[in-house]
Design a protein that fits this description.
By secondary structure, the chain is an all-alpha fold. Helices cover about 75% and strands about 0% of the residues. The relative contact order is 0.16.
Length: about 575
């Protein structure tokens, strides 16, 4: 046993608190589907936004970032930093639209946007596709990370780690639904950040401080962007271009994604939904990034020969922290893990009940019946996830596969908001072609040595050609349905002129201010993220310049808000 009784007591106290929260909210969550899946649509922006951050901060995240930095350098974090762009799209383009729709899940959009049998098929198909396929892979990824942590800290095998680390989460998320998820998320995020900061400080001190780290690791590891040593066509720079040029808009969550949409839908109103998403993006990138990166840089000095880069982070926890802090750190891992797992368990059951079981299996039943089905589905999906998690071996490999797996669908999810001609068959064909192409490029020996960006480009190109062709070969959505959708959302843009002309009383929206604020928002988050990193690493002039660019962008967004009254009101 590598943990003291004090460490185990801290972990046990955290587990008990999570379980008690689940029990406390059980009665309230059982009153209706809105309460079980959306907390009654009455959350303030700060709680919904914190839940967004906590959910995307899982036990796999610091291991994943450590692997990136040790394997390539700081710049490889653009693999996930690139989603700053899609995050700002969610803030300034989609947050208000999702809240106006009043959906319970993002899949419910299909019934409000499309018409006919193809729409019904698509809604049922996506409910199963996300709840059983995509979400199972995501949950398996975070369970794998927790299993690695449990192996290093307690010496447990994979099956024991999967069962024990998931048990409490399954119990409280099954009992309390979304109420338990968002409430525990708030405390879990605080504990997780405290743990990450403690380990970053301890590891940097052990490595001799920032200056010593900079002197004892290769200088290119500290680069925030890939070098051009191999030219513009070199693998590093082309991979970087793949991230910032393809990944962020082509992913299946390009218009927000299920987790973010669920939290937007649970907010009090449009203003709270937008503020929650804005706060999430700042906290997600500017605040979360650097404790992990600093610890990863220190690990290159402390553990230069370790081959399993992802296992170094928990190893530092066990080697560097004293009793008590070690237990707090491990509790922070549990907190990060449980926040993500509970979210995906709740959302997966929401997809199944709201978008498959209720529309197609049992249309008329009381609320308690649907909640009981959701709880049973949560248990069933937990078993499936455990089996898949046992087969997974690489966190970074799973992350890259997930980006590629849904990369052919992102564009159609964006365009459906701004072009009336997109129909259900557009989405169906995009999903099928993306899935088939991904399977081929990841399993065929022909593409075995192809770089990641080449595979991503092939998946996106083939899928886009297919869904655009299918769109023009199939019937458009019923005009009455399109008018209803536009009246409710008012997305704006030239792609809706045809529908605006059909009904003279429809407002003619503009995207000019949304585009400006999107640009300002990207500069804001990138500026604060890179600026903080430069300052922490001792590059003060560069850090101040990045931070000033973020501050100027903040002022510009505020001025645009004062002028248009559209952003935060």
């Amino acid at each position: 046993m590598k943990l003291s009784y004090l460490d185990l007591s801290i972990i046990g106290a955290y587990m008990l608190l999570s379980l008690l929260i689940g029990i406390y909210f059980t009665k309230r969550a059982s009153s209706s589907m809105n309460e079980f899946f959306l907390s009654g649509r009455n959350l303030p922006w700060w709680l919904a936004g914190t839940s967004m951050v906590a959910t995307t901060f899982s036990s796999d995240t610091p291991l994943y970032v450590t692997g990136l930095v040790r394997g390539h350098g700081i710049y490889e974090n653009w693999q996930w930093w690139c989603f700053i762009l899609s995050g700002m799209m969610a803030v300034f383009f989609f947050a208000r639209l999702w809240r106006r729709l009043g959906v319970l899940t993002d899949v419910e959009l299909i019934d409000l946007r499309y018409s006919g049998m193809s729409a019904s098929f698509l809604r049922g198909f996506k409910a199963i596709y996300f709840s059983i396929a995509i979400h199972t892979i995501i949950k398996a990824q975070v369970i794998l990370a927790m299993a690695k942590i449990m192996d290093v800290s307690l010496g447990w095998g994979k099956w024991e780690s999967i069962a024990i680390s998931s048990g409490i989460t399954i119990v409280y998320s099954t009992l309390s639904g979304y109420w338990g998820v968002v409430t525990t998320d708030f405390f879990q995020f605080i504990i997780s950040m405290i743990g990450a900061i403690i380990l970053a400080v301890a590891s940097v001190r052990k490595a001799g401080g920032i200056d010593s780290i900079k002197e004892n690791i290769p200088s290119d590891v500290l680069n925030f962007f890939p070098t051009l040593d191999e030219g513009f066509m070199g693998a590093a720079f082309m991979t970087f271009l793949g991230y910032i040029g393809l990944s962020w808009w082509s992913k299946y969550s390009s218009d927000g994604g299920g987790v973010i949409v669920q939290r937007i839908a649970s907010c009090k109103d449009e203003q709270h939904g937008l503020l929650a998403t804005f706060y999430f993006n700042i906290a997600n990138y500017a605040l979360r990034t650097w404790p992990w990166i600093l610890a990863a840089l220190a690990s290159l000095v402390l553990y230069p020969a370790v081959k399993d880069h992802e296992a170094v982070y928990p190893k530092m926890m066990m080697d560097l922290l004293p009793s008590g802090l070690k237990g707090l750190m491990l509790a922070s891992f549990f907190a990060a893990f449980m926040s993500t797992l509970s979210t995906y368990l709740n959302l997966s059951s929401a997809y199944f009940v709201n978008d498959f079981y209720k529309p197609f299996i049992k249309k008329v039943a009381d609320e308690r019946h649907y909640i009981n089905v959701a709880r049973l589905m949560t248990l069933f999906l937990s078993v499936i996830t455990g089996i898949v998690a046992y087969q997974v071996t690489s966190i970074i490999g799973v992350f890259k596969f997930l980006i590629a797996f849904g990369s052919g669908t992102g564009l159609v999810y964006i365009i459906r908001w701004y072009w009336w001609r997109v129909n259900a068959w557009s989405e169906i064909s995009a999903m099928i072609s993306s899935t088939v192409t991904t399977f081929i490029v990841y399993t065929s020996p022909i593409f075995e040595i192809s770089p990641y960006y080449t595979k991503l480009f092939m998946i996106i190109t083939i899928s886009t050609v297919v869904w655009i062709t299918v769109t023009f070969l199939t019937k458009p959505v019923d005009e009455k349905k399109l008018i209803e959708f536009y009246s409710k959302t008012n997305p704006g843009g030239p792609g809706w002129r045809h529908i605006e002309n059909l009904a003279n009383d429809l407002p003619r929206g503009s995207l000019k201010n949304d585009i400006l604020n999107f640009f300002y928002g990207v500069v804001l988050v990138v500026g604060f993220t890179l600026g903080l990193g430069k300052l922490l690493l001792g590059y003060y002039i560069e850090g101040i310049l990045y931070a000033v660019s973020g501050l100027i962008s903040t002022i510009l967004i505020y001025r645009n808000h004062k002028k248009t009254k559209k952003i935060f009101c």
